[in-house]
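Please fill in the sequence for the structure shown.

STRUCTURE ENCODING:
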């Protein structure tokens, strides 16, 4: 038996104990995990520094180092996220609905754990605590395989949480860490059907496509974020500039930042110079189509590839469109079904955009940066699903459950 198969076997064995924990017990343990993170803040920062020291060796660009970096504030956010998960209603055991059929059977749909969740992810150490806390609250065991760039951070975070499990006599298989960073282990996880109930990749397009194309385990796709803001002809231009700048520059290395700006032709001459001034002040490289170039002084011509690219950097593609319909068509052609936004004061235009844009999260007069499980009130997220089965958007507790039908009878037999 290989090492990864042994992890799978151990995880599977833990699920029976997890299913017996009460909500109160789970919440108490989660709060202890949050306290343990806080108590070990300096150790976590030291481990993270070891990862950051190797970042250049791995060719990680500066904007992506931001995703990797941990400080006291971010560790506090991680602890707060775990605490918020503890405060949320426990979906496990809930009966969503119950009805009587023609045979007078009472049929109910009851929430149950998925079982064993596998996570393959890159860069962001907070994914480790988010995934572990959400899975634990929903009675799922989790096997975490983070990227080599965050190895020391992830390893220590899991050790801290495992220590809390041990203090509470919880089966060690509940939260496990894959300490092998080879690609072969990733390939093996993708075929771990005997032990994994679902596999969730979270990272760049290459990782996600690799898992989608080669996994035999059921996959929930968490997508890349080729996101857009469309500034309508009826937009408040000051609002439009504020929202665009936040969506692009507040944290450009994350999946809910925008990569393309669409501007209606009727207001392009006014809003684009306003935006260019702000973008250049933030050292944003601008790539624009021919129509947009007419209103910009320091931009290069955009290529077809630019419309398709998730830059995760201080780069913004800009296109002037003739109509709302053209904006929607462009978004639906190039987006990754993640997060899209319109800035407009026109109610009918806003409703058309909401109805026709195909994405997990669609905003009116707000930044795409809000697509986040913590912000949505989920405490944390295990990822942002860009598919439609079985979850979509930020995935919280409910997304880590399935349905068991429970049926009450009174001596019925089928004729």
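FILLED IN BY: designer on duty
SEQUENCE:
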């Amino acid at each position: 038996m290989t090492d990864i198969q042994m992890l799978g076997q151990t995880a599977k064995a833990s699920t029976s104990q997890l299913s017996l924990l009460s909500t109160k017990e789970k919440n108490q343990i989660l709060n202890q995990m949050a306290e343990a993170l806080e108590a070990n803040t300096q150790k976590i920062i030291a481990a993270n520094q070891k990862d950051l020291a190797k970042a250049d060796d791995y060719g990680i660009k500066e904007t992506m180092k931001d995703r990797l970096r941990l400080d006291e504030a971010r560790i506090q956010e991680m602890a707060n996220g775990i605490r918020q998960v503890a405060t949320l209603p426990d979906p496990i055991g809930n009966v969503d609905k119950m009805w009587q059929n023609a045979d007078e059977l009472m049929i109910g749909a009851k929430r149950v754990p998925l079982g064993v969740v596998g996570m393959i992810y890159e860069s962001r150490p907070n994914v480790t605590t988010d995934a572990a806390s959400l899975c634990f609250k929903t009675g799922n065991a989790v096997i975490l395989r983070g990227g080599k760039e965050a190895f020391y951070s992830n390893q220590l975070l899991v050790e801290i949480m495992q220590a809390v499990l041990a203090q509470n006599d919880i089966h060690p298989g509940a939260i496990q860490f894959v300490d092998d960073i080879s690609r072969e282990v990733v390939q093996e996880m993708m075929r771990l059907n005997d032990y994994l109930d679902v596999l969730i990749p979270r990272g760049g397009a290459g990782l996600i496509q690799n898992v989608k194309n080669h996994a035999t385990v059921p996959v929930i796709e968490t997508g890349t974020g080729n996101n857009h803001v469309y500034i309508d002809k009826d937009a408040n231009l000051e609002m439009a500039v504020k929202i665009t700048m936040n969506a692009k520059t507040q944290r450009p290395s994350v999946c809910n930042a925008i990569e393309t700006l669409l501007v209606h032709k009727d207001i392009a001459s006014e809003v684009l110079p306003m935006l260019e001034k702000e973008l250049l002040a933030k050292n944003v490289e601008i790539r624009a189509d021919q129509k947009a170039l007419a209103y910009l002084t320091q931009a290069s011509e955009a290529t077809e590839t630019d419309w398709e690219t998730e830059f995760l950097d201080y780069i913004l593609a800009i296109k002037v469109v003739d109509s709302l319909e053209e904006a929607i068509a462009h978004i639906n052609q190039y987006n990754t079904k993640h997060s899209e936004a319109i800035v407009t004061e026109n109610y009918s235009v806003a409703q058309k955009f909401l109805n026709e844009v195909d994405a997990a999260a669609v905003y009116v007069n707000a930044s795409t940066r809000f697509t986040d499980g913590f912000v949505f009130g989920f405490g944390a997220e295990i990822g942002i699903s860009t598919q439609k089965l079985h979850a979509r958007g930020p995935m919280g507790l409910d997304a880590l459950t399935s349905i068991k039908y429970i049926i009450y009878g009174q001596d019925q037999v089928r004729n």
